[in-house]
Each structure stands twice: as structure tokens, then as C-alpha cells.
Amino acid sequence: MSAKQVNVADKTMSYTRYERARIVGARALQISMGAPVLIKDVKSVEPIEVALAELERGLIPITVKRTNKSYRREAESSESSG
């Protein structure tokens, strides 16, 4: 599985495996608690697999904030910017 790459401020960033785990886990919890599924052709009923499919398609509206080496905040959004 390749990491989702997002273009923010002319930089291409990808999620770390920890960010991916956090995003998928949070979304799977939402789905298991009754949140609507964002994809139509669901092949599985398992919340984790549905959340992974949503992440791979870029459908989860989430912003990841991280601190870079110079301690400035960077934002990475899973939504396309154009």
C-alpha cells in the first residue's frame, strides 16, 4: 500500500505509518458508531477495511498537523486543493 501524497504549499508530503494508523483507527471508530460511509461500493462490512478504502480514495476530510525540523507547523490535508 502506498502512502497518500498531498500537495500543500508546493510540497509533496505523504502520511507516516503512524498518521495512517491514527486516521484509519479514528475513522473506523466513527463508522462502527454509526457514521455514514463515504464510499458507495463497499466490498466489506469491517469498519477498518472501509476506512482504509476511504483513505486510499482520499475521501476522509482530515488535516494532519506536524512540526518540521525548524519547528514550524505544517498542515497536510487529505482533500485535493485543486
Automatic annotation (TrEMBL):
GO cellular component: cytoplasm; DNA-directed RNA polymerase complex
EC number annotated for this UniProt entry: 2.7.7.6
GO molecular-function term, one example from the UniProt record: DNA binding
Signal peptide: none
Enzyme class, broadest EC rank: transferase
One Pfam assignment: RNA_pol_Rpb6
Keywords recorded for this protein, A-Z: Cytoplasm, DNA-directed RNA polymerase, Nucleotidyltransferase, Transcription, Transferase
The keyword Kinase is annotated on this UniProt entry: no
GO BP annotations listed: transcription by RNA polymerase I; transcription by RNA polymerase II; tRNA transcription by RNA polymerase III
InterPro entries per the UniProt record, alphabetical: DNA-dir_RNA_polK_14-18kDa_CS, Pol_omega/Rpo6/RPB6, RPB6/omega-like_sf, Rpo6/Rpb6
Primary location class: cytoplasm
Catalyzed reactions per annotation: RNA(n) + a ribonucleoside 5'-triphosphate = RNA(n+1) + diphosphate
PANTHER family for this protein: DNA-DIRECTED RNA POLYMERASE SUBUNIT K (PTHR47227), DNA-DIRECTED RNA POLYMERASES I, II, AND III SUBUNIT RPABC2 (PTHR47227:SF5)
Function statement: DNA-dependent RNA polymerase (RNAP) catalyzes the transcription of DNA into RNA using the four ribonucleoside triphosphates as substrates.
Subunit annotation: Part of the RNA polymerase complex.
Family as reported in the entry's similarity comment: Belongs to the archaeal Rpo6/eukaryotic RPB6 RNA polymerase subunit family.
Name by which UniProt lists this protein: DNA-directed RNA polymerase subunit Rpo6
Origin organism lineage: Archaea, Methanobacteriati, Methanobacteriota, Stenosarchaea group, Methanomicrobia
